[in-house]
TrEMBL record:
Pfam families: ADK. Monomer. It is found in: Cytoplasm. One of its GO terms (biological process) is AMP salvage. GO terms for cellular component: cytoplasm. It comes from Brevundimonas halotolerans. The keyword Kinase applies. Consists of three domains, a large central CORE domain and two small peripheral domains, NMPbind and LID, which undergo movements during catalysis. The LID domain closes over the site of phosphoryl transfer upon ATP binding. Assembling and dissambling the active center during each catalytic cycle provides an effective means to prevent ATP hydrolysis. InterPro entries: Adenylat/UMP-CMP_kin, Adenylat_kinase_CS, P-loop_NTPase. The gene is adk. This is Adenylate kinase. Residues 30-59 are annotated as: NMP.
Length: 188
């Protein structure tokens, strides 16, 4: 099973993905984690990514698609992938569909965590204060949230047209969101 967790930064995608890794053995393909690992490596790619993320911009499709493709074998061996933070644009969604089709696979479900932008801004300010992640500073977050809303909104009709989109109240408790996701997966 291949699942996309869809929602803006700080919507809870990572929390839910980690739970699915533990309970179902799926592989989480988190572009945010992959990009932070590239930065931590100190590589040329990492330095490029660091500058882009600190400005609150989105990393290019080419970089993100390459990072995802490098992990697909692992996900297939585990029985499925949870795409967390990817795709963010219709071009990335089309690239993902093509990558999976070449492998005889597809996206099974897209779960959109519906959340309130103002609540997310408060969430990120708290996370920044507690964890100090440079890509979570409130100003960069505002830029990321605006980019998400502008660039990712077209994905809703893209996946809805494929009959794969399911919406869940992402403002509910972690356990309630988890239960709703489990129900969606049971119906897949």
């Amino acid at each position: 099973m291949n699942l996309i967790l869809f929602g803006p930064p700080a919507a809870g995608k990572g929390t839910q993905a980690k739970r699915l890794v533990e309970t179902r053995g799926m592989v989480q393909l988190s572009t945010g984690d992959m990009l932070r690992a590239a930065i931590a490596s100190g590589s040329d790619l990492g330095q490029t990514v660091k500058g882009i993320m600190e400005r609150g911009e989105l990393v290019t499709d080419e970089i993100v698609v390459a990072l995802i493709e490098a992990r697909l074998d692992e996900a297939e061996a585990a029985g499925g992938a949870i795409f967390d933070g990817f795709p963010r644009t219709v071009a990335q969604a089309q690239a993902l569909d093509a990558m999976l089709a070449r492998r005889g696979s597809t996206i099974d479900r897209v779960v959109r965590l519906k959340v309130d932008d103002e609540a997310l801004k408060a969430r990120i300010a708290q996370r920044y204060a507690e964890q100090g992640r440079p890509d979570d500073n409130p100003e960069s977050f505002r830029v990321r949230l605006e980019a998400y809303n502008r660039q990712t909104a077209p994905l809703l009709p893209y996946y809805e047209g494929q009959g794969k989109l399911v919406e869940i109240d992402g403002m509910a408790s972690i356990d309630a969101v988890a239960g709703a996701i489990d129900t969606v997966l049971a119906d897949a």
